[in-house]
Amino acid sequence: LAVVPVMFDRIMDLPDDVRNRYSGKSLRFATASGSRMRPDVVTAFMDQFGDVIYNNYNATEAGMIATATPADLRAAPDTAGTPADGTELRILDADHRELPTGEVGQIFVRSSTLFDGYTSGATKDFHDGFMASGDMG
Domain 2-136 is in which class? Predict the structure, then answer.
């Protein structure tokens, strides 16, 4: 099952009697990307259908950035997971200074899959080879 996060919301918003018609025993894998998943929905979905959700944090300009496994999501249902192989992340402040763990700032990513630029000529913010994802973390 591959969906955008709001589809998990909609499934869990169904009346209990509708959701309970389906055991979910055949569901082995569910993944979402495109926006933040609600932690309460992640937990409720896995409680009902099993530990099958993978959260993928992607960007058109960078490909896969990070993945959270079902175990990661059980421990911290709001996590985006760990960086994909070959991907480096930095959390920077407005002056491009690296922030300590636990501080919120802009996410910058570097990988071999970063894009070269938009065909329109528009640009993204780059710093020391890292591209601004446009997200905070």
Answer: alpha beta
Nearest Cα neighbor of 130 from 89, 97, 84 is 89
Give me the DSSP letters along 36-85: PPPHHHHHHHHHHH-S-EEEEEEETTTEEEEEE-HHHHHH-TT---EEPT
- Assess contact for 88 and 111: CB atoms under 8 A: yes
Q: What is the pTM of this model?
A: 0.85
User: Are the CB atoms for 124 and 53 separated by under 8 Å?
Assistant: no
CB 73 within 8 Å of CB 42: yes
Give CA–CA dist 76/109, Å, rounded. Answer: 22
pLDDT tens-place string over residues 52-74: 999 999 998 999 999 999 999 99
Q: Please compute the mean of the pLDDT values over residues 95-99 and round it to a whole number.
A: 95
Tens digits of residue pLDDT in 73-83: 999 999 999 99
User: Residue 105 in 3-state DSSP?
Assistant: coil
Local structure of 119: helix, strand or coil: coil
Please give the radius of gyration of the chain, using alpha carbons only, rounded to the nearest integer: 17
Domain boundaries, the chain: 2-136
